[in-house]
Write a structure and sequence with these properties.
- The chain has a 4-stranded antiparallel beta sheet with strand order 1-2-4-3, with helices on both faces.
- The radius of gyration is 20 Å and the shape is globular.
- It starts with 5 loop residues before the first helix and ends in a 5-residue tail after the last helix.
- It is an alpha+beta fold.
- The structure holds flavin mononucleotide (FMN).
- The site of flavin mononucleotide (FMN) has 11 residues, from strand 3.
Length: about 260
């Protein structure tokens, strides 16, 4: 990853701070749109507890999420600070007040429906896709109720990269794969600035696939590096990537076994 000099660093931070959702003013008042556009990953929570009925409503949004053939290929492992500490021997990240480990689950429906028995890759993809949609429903329902959240794949113990550990701890059967942990709480202070998002014209294409503009991608990369440094003074984007990379090999092996079991792929 290339280095960003001091001038580039300041310029990149300025661009991050100026980043705003782009919608016509006539639409900006729509409550759901505003919730979607102003959502942020929040990594600092107050000690205020989340009432049971609020958390139940958040889970209900996940339960009712859309899914392929309505198979509902997900499971939610739910935690409060006490049960999290009992399971993982450490406090909830960022002083969160509740957590949900979202799993792709091809195990449950197999009791009654053999949807894709000979297509493990499709079955896995469908499960992860559906569970991710349910995760987003949890996240947005929370946001709408004034509860903030962050999705995590790396918490040291409870993310995608710890699938093997979670399989043991939560007694997961074959076909149940942890994909992310969502930490919920009431945000401490203002939301962080929007991290650098790629422009719409770089992520959309009409007709044949269009390669992204190298200058736009280089600018985005500089903002990613600067933004990460500004919010993690003692770390860096590269260092964070290396944390992931150090665990990837084991995670890959664990996931293969959880997802495909003895069938292999
Ligand atoms: C599946 C998934 C896994 C993530 N894992 C982590 C994580 O391990 N640690 C973290 O700090 N943020 C994590 N995030 C949050 C992203 O860093 C965040 O969504 C991204 O920087 C964009 O910021 P925004 O959510 O405020 O738009 C994850 C997000 C997703 C969707």
């Amino acid at each position: 990853m290339s280095k960003v000099g001091p001038i580039g660093f300041v310029r990149s931070l300025g661009r991050i701070l100026r980043g705003k959702p782009q919608v016509p003013p006539s639409l900006a008042d729509n409550d759901l749109l505003r919730t979607l556009l102003q959502r942020r990953s929040v990594r600092s929570f107050t000690a205020q507890a989340i009432p049971d009925d609020i958390f139940a409503a958040i889970l209900e949004a996940g339960r009712l999420a859309p899914s392929t053939v309505n198979l509902q290929t997900w499971s939610f492992a739910i935690f409060d600070p006490e049960s999290w500490a009992a399971a993982f021997g450490q406090p909830l990240p960022f002083r969160g007040q509740r957590a949900v480990i979202v799993m792709g689950d091809t195990h449950r429906a197999r009791q009654v429906i053999q949807a894709f028995p000979d297509s493990p890759l499709v079955e896995y993809t469908v499960a992860v896709m559906n569970a991710s949609l349910a995760a987003m429903a949890l996240n947005i329902a929370a946001e709408a109720l004034g509860v903030s959240s962050v999705m995590l794949s790396e918490t040291g113990r409870s993310g995608l990269l710890d699938a093997g550990y979670l399989k043991e701890t939560l007694a997961l059967p074959e076909g149940v794969v942890p994909i992310m942990t969502i930490i919920f709480g009431y945000a401490k202070g203002a939301y962080p600035p929007m991290p650098p998002k790629l422009p719409l014209d770089q992520v959309c294409f009409a007709g044949r696939y269009r390669e992204a503009d190298p200058a736009v991608m280089a600018d985005w990369q500089a903002q990613m590096i600067a933004g990460y440094k500004a919010s993690h003074l003692r770390s860096s984007f590269d260092a964070q990537l290396r944390v992931y990379q150090a665990k990837i090999g084991q995670a890959e092996a664990d996931l293969r076994e959880i997802v495909f079991g003895k069938r292999g792929i």
